Amino acid sequence: MGRDRKFSITELYEHTQALLLEVGYEGFTFSLLAERLHVARGTIYKYFENKDELITAFMIYEMNQFMKKLEQIEEKGDFERQFTYLMEIIFERTEIQELINITKQVNTTNEKTVANQTYFKSMSINMYTCLQNFVQLGKQEGKLNPSLPDTMILGFIFQSVAIPNHFQLPREQWVQSIIEMVSNGIRT
């Protein structure tokens, strides 16, 4: 009755993300995921030993998708265009911060999970390295304060996505307001 259905890695990760955002780490199970995918739970176990292995593999996949876009930043030209592009790709996936926090709950229960977590951390460092030219360009063009450490600037930009939208501003207004604050500060 459809239990032998095949699924793509993209489909698997889309449902993994949706479930993680709906039920969190503790509520996430292969049973729920199998139900969403219309497969037997054992089908997922053919590929992943446990949910921690799956979640860490999913986060590597997400980071790879982000890095593919990020690698295009230098093609955008001057700092202002690069900054706009960076903010666009950061705010395409505002849920990523929540997913990263969920990933911090992962148990290091097997070698594959440990390897995935180590690799994910190295990818995060590579992301910052990839953006060094962006920061240097901003400093050269006088758009970024040269006395601030590069990692502090990048951390500030990336953490801006974690600013909550408590009053449910329209998404465009919320994003534009954050971009304005990151670009120009909060003072008039």
Automatic annotation (TrEMBL):
Residues 29-48 bind DNA. Gene3D superfamilies: Tetracycline Repressor, domain 2. Pfam families: TetR_N. This is TetR family transcriptional regulator. GO terms for molecular function: DNA binding. Residues 6-66 form the HTH tetR-type domain. Keywords: DNA-binding, Repressor.
